[in-house]
Design brief:
Helix 1 crosses helix 4 (about 65-95). The protein is built from ten helices and ten strands. It is about 40% helix and about 25% strand. It is of the alpha/beta class and about 300 residues long. The protein is rod-shaped. It has two domains: about 10-95, Winged helix-like DNA-binding domain superfamily/Winged helix DNA-binding domain (Arc Repressor Mutant, subunit A), CATH 1.10.10; about 100-300, D-Maltodextrin-Binding Protein, domain 2. The protein has a six-stranded mixed beta sheet with strand order 4-3-5-10-6-9, with helices on both faces. Strands 1-2 form a two-stranded antiparallel sheet. A two-stranded parallel ribbon has the order 7-8.
């Protein structure tokens, strides 16, 4: 009758497999770095637990019984499974494998982020990245709920439930239709934009929604008119090309050519971009991504923040 006062421990299996491989408790002890008496005692405990003899003892050592032969296959499978599981967990801990969910704005698909994800893939190519496009306020809420691991947004204002890590800055550009009266200028300023109409996605129109581009336009004054449109970002630039108004865009967006559009920088105007993340998030893939992002921000690449 098997006893159940003591659980079968991992070391019981290790000692048993070592003794089966070595054909001797003494040699198994040497291989494991423990005393022969420890091997003998643990195997005896294991036999008591199972209610069956696993070894036949003889002067030259030990040999497996029929029950021991059957149990050896199972014990080796269990040890192999434990090693594989430990390897997988260690790989996740080193962010060699795993998953990370990242929130971005469409205007952040180039520049610093493109370089960041290239660097991340070089070191952590086994991590599956799921990108989600949304507005800043929705990203903030998802990060606080731990539905998003990190979101990259324009601005650096505090958000409830989130850590804010400023990473890089970009110049602000105005998207103009070709043939616009300011198209022959190399640089614009706010006074020159007085009376102009800037197109906004409807979702980004309320300043309380946290859209940094809208807040910058509101702060500029100069009788700038804001015209919300019930469209997404991918429709705003075609509307600009049609002459329906202008749009404020980031330097990364301005680096991408668009038919019928010309871009001109606004003198002295830059915008800081940040990572939103939660201190409660223990995803190793997130920690590695933030580490690379900070290192990239400190380097001379990607227009890093000034010290």
């Amino acid at each position: 009758m098997a006893k159940h006062s003591l659980p079968i421990e991992l070391r019981h299996l290790r000692y048993f497999v070592a003794a089966a491989e070595q054909g001797s408790f003494r040699k198994a002890g040497v291989a494991l770095g423990v005393q022969e008496s420890s091997v003998s005692r643990r195997i005896r405990d294991l036999e008591d637990q199972l209610g069956a003899s696993l070894f036949q003892r003889h002067n030259g050592g030990v040999r497996l019984t029929f029950a021991g032969q059957r149990f050896r296959r199972q014990a080796e499978d269990m040890l192999r499974h434990m090693r594989d599981s430990a390897h997988d967990v260690a790989a996740i801990g080193r962010a060699k494998n795993g998953r990370i969910t990242i929130g971005i704005l469409p205007s952040l698909a180039a520049g610093f982020l493109a370089e960041l994800f290239r660097a991340y893939d070089q070191h952590h190519g086994g991590v599956h990245i799921n990108f989600i496009e949304n507005e800043t306020a929705e990203h903030e809420a998802a990060v606080a709920r731990l539905d998003l691991d990190v979101a990259f947004v324009a601005g650096q204002q505090p958000w409830p439930g989130c850590e804010v890590t400023p990473l890089w800055e970009e110049r602000l550009f105005v998207a103009l239709p070709k043939g616009h009266r300011h198209g022959d200028r190399d640089e614009l300023d706010w006074p020159s934009l007085a009376g102009e109409c800037f197109l906004l996605r409807h979702a980004a129109a309320p300043p309380e929604a946290g859209d940094a581009f809208v807040q910058r336009l509101i702060g500029a004054g100069q009788d700038i008119r804001l015209q919300p449109q019930c469209v997404g970002r991918d429709i705003v630039l075609p509307l600009v090309a049609m002459g329906r108004g202008l749009a404020l865009v980031s330097e990364a967006t301005a680096s991408i050519s668009f038919p019928g559009i010309i871009y001109r920088p606004i003198a002295g105007e830059t915008l800081i971009f940040s990572a939103l993340w939660s201190a409660k998030n223990d995803n190793p893939a997130l920690r590695c991504l933030l580490s690379i992002a900070r290192r990239l921000a400190r380097s001379s690449r990607g227009r890093p923040l000034p010290p």
